[in-house]
C-alpha cells in the first residue's frame, strides 16, 4: 500500500510548478519564475539566450529588498557571486532594463568608468559593477527570469 501511494505521488512531486513555464522554477519571495542554465557567457550572449531561447530576460531589480534577495538566493542556489543583470546604458547615456520595466532603483558601485554599458550583481557586496556589453572576455553566470503565468480563477 505504501509503495502504491508513493507511485501516485511521484507525478505530483516531479510536475513543474503550475505558476511557471515547464523549464522555470517559481521563487515566491521575488514573485518571479527563474531558470539558471549552469552556464557562463558574455552579457550579449546571456541576454540573447534568455530572450530568444527561453522567452525570459536577465533580471531587473526595483528595490533594495529585491537586490538583497537576488544576491542571497542566487548565491546559495548557484554557488556563484556574480550574475549579469538586464541593465544596459543606452546611446543617450540613460540606464534601462532590457525587460522594459522602469529603471527605478540602482546600486552601482562607485567608479570613474564612463565607457561600460552593462552591469552585473556582485553578491559579495550587493553592488552593481560595470562591464562592456560587447566585451567577449567577461563571462559571468546568468539567470533568466520572467513573470509567472497568470492563474485563471473560477467563480
Automatic annotation (TrEMBL):
Superkingdom assignment: Eukaryota
The entry's keywords: Disulfide bond, Signal
InterPro entries for the chain: C-type_lectin-like, C-type_lectin-like/link_sf, CTDL_fold, Snaclec
Stretches assigned to the C-type lectin domain: 33-136
Protein name: C-type lectin domain-containing protein
Signal sequence extent: 1-15
Record's keyword annotation contains Signal: yes
SUPFAM superfamilies for this protein: C-type lectin-like
Taxonomic lineage: Eukaryota, Metazoa, Ecdysozoa, Nematoda, Chromadorea
Amino acid at each position: 500500500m505504501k509503495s502504491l501511494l508513493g507511485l501516485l505521488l511521484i507525478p505530483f512531486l516531479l510536475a513543474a510548478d503550475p505558476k511557471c513555464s515547464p523549464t522555470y522554477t517559481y521563487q515566491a519571495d521575488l514573485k518571479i519564475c527563474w531558470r539558471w542554465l549552469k552556464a557562463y557567457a558574455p552579457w550579449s550572449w546571456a541576454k540573447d539566450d534568455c530572450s530568444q531561447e527561453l522567452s525570459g530576460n536577465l533580471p531587473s531589480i526595483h528595490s533594495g529588498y529585491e537586490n538583497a534577495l537576488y544576491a542571497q538566493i542566487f548565491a546559495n542556489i548557484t554557488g556563484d557571486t556574480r550574475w549579469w543583470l538586464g541593465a544596459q546604458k543606452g546611446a543617450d547615456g540613460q540606464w534601462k532594463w532590457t525587460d522594459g520595466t522602469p529603471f527605478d532603483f540602482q546600486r552601482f558601485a562607485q567608479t570613474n568608468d564612463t565607457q561600460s554599458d552593462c552591469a552585473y550583481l556582485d553578491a559579495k557586496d550587493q553592488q552593481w559593477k560595470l562591464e562592456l556589453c560587447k566585451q567577449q572576455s567577461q563571462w559571468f553566470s546568468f539567470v533568466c527570469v520572467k513573470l509567472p503565468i497568470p492563474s485563471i480563477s473560477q467563480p
